[in-house]
């Protein structure tokens, strides 16, 4: 059932390459100039299937956004009976991951949690430890990558845990080599399609999709990465960030589903910004401006 439904996503990827450059391209160029970095953005209208973007097929680091593919894989395993939602899992301090982890901070000695609790922490709270435990339970990066390839072709790549990714970030020879590594990256259009699949209920059972939507509605992260009409019409979101390297932020991102005006359905979007020296406020404003340009372009299209 899952492979058949997921195959419906792939024609959108092929058709997108034939589209002419959209009218929001000048706005995207202006944002890139203002922050001195590279933007990648894509959005898909669920009602029409229309997909458009800027650097939509280029690769950007997933970082915390990788928690969403890991959670999708775990939920798919749950539906197959391989990872029950209420299964109890012992988490030892040695399994904690660096980075943002409320689980590690609240339970420094470790503890016992359900798969469902780990999923909620990973998706809602961007918890790196919870995500890495789920990744290990689910068969490791290779198992998640196999499922992502089935659903999204090569658009989303999962190659390492967040702990291993942190080590690569800290110990790598250069920022450029880190950005050139194709592992743990995604294209903006593949993340937009992932969000549209969650909203459209295309790859999992309805209860699993609703769980994901509920957790992303409740997330405290990424609120300032959407602005204007896109923020006002927000349904839910997921964000990702990383630290600076040699004075430049490697990447930060936002993925969201918003409501288009006049009953025209939902818009799934994803925006990435990489390799800029700007501070957090400036980066968030750039992401919000890019998301706003995407949303405004789709909202202005004539109804079909």
Features:
single chain, 304 residues, alpha+beta, Beta-lactamase, 6-stranded antiparallel beta sheet, 14 helices, disordered N terminus
Structural features, described:
- With 304 residues, the protein is of the alpha+beta class.
- The protein has one domain (2-62, 140-300): DD-peptidase/beta-lactamase superfamily (Beta-lactamase), CATH 3.40.710.10.
- 47% of the residues lie in helices and 19% in strands.
- It contains 14 helices and ten strands.
- The strands form three sheets. Strands 1, 2, 7, 8, 9 and 10 form a six-stranded antiparallel beta sheet that branches. A two-stranded antiparallel ribbon has the order 3-6.
- Helix 3 (25-35) packs antiparallel against helix 14, helix 4 (67-79) crosses helix 7 and helix 6 packs across helix 7 (128-137).
- The longest helix has 21 residues, at 280-300.
- The protein is globular.
- The protein starts with a helix and ends with a helix.
Return Rg in Å: 18 Å
Number of helices: 14
Q: What's the rounded overall pLDDT mean?
A: 91
Whole-Å distance between the termini?
Answer: 31 Å
The dominant shape is globular
Which series of helices and strands comes N to C? HHHEEEHEHEHHHHHEHHHEEEEH
Number of strands: 10
- How does CATH name the architecture? 3-Layer(aba) Sandwich
Strand coverage percent:
15-25%
CATH superfamily: DD-peptidase/beta-lactamase superfamily
User: What is the number of domains?
Assistant: 1
Low-confidence residue ranges: 1-8, 10-18
Based on helices, strands and strand pairing, what is the structural class? alpha+beta
Characterize the biggest β-sheet.
Answer: 6 strands, antiparallel
Helix content range of the residues, please? 40-55%
At CATH level 3, the topology is Beta-lactamase
Multimeric organization: single chain
* CATH uppermost class: Alpha Beta
């Amino acid at each position: 059932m899952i492979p058949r439904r997921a195959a419906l996503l792939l024609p959108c990827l092929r058709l997108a390459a034939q589209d002419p450059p959209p009218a929001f391209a000048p706005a995207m160029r202006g944002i890139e100039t203002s922050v001195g970095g590279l933007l990648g953005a894509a959005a898909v209208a669920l009602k029409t299937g229309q997909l458009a973007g800027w650097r939509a097929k280029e690769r950007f680091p997933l970082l915390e956004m990788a928690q969403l593919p890991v959670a999708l894989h775990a939920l798919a395993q749950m539906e197959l009976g391989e990872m029950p939602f209420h299964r109890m899992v012992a988490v030892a301090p040695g399994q904690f991951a660096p980075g943002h982890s409320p689980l590690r901070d609240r339970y420094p000695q470790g503890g016992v949690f359900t798969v469902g609790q780990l999923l909620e922490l990973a998706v809602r709270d961007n918890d790196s430890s919870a995500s890495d435990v789920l990744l290990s339970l689910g068969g490791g990066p290779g198992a998640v990558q196999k499922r992502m390839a089935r659903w999204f072709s090569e658009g989303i790549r999962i190659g390492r845990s967040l702990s291993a990714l942190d080590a690569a970030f800290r110990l790598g020879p250069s920022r450029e080599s880190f950005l050139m590594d194709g592992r743990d990256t995604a294209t903006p259009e593949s993340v937009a399609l992932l969000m549209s699949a969650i909203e459209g209920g295309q790859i999992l059972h309805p209860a699993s999709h609703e769980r994901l939507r509920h957790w992303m509605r409740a997330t405290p992260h990424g609120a300032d990465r959407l602005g204007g009409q896109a923020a006002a019409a927000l349904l839910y979101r997921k964000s990702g960030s990383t630290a600076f390297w040699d004075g430049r932020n490697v990447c930060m991102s936002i993925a969201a589903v918003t409501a288009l005006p006049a009953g025209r359905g939902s818009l799934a979007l994803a925006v990435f910004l990489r390799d800029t020296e700007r501070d957090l406020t400036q980066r968030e404003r750039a992401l919000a401006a890019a998301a706003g340009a995407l949303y405004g372009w789709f909202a202005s299209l004539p109804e079909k």
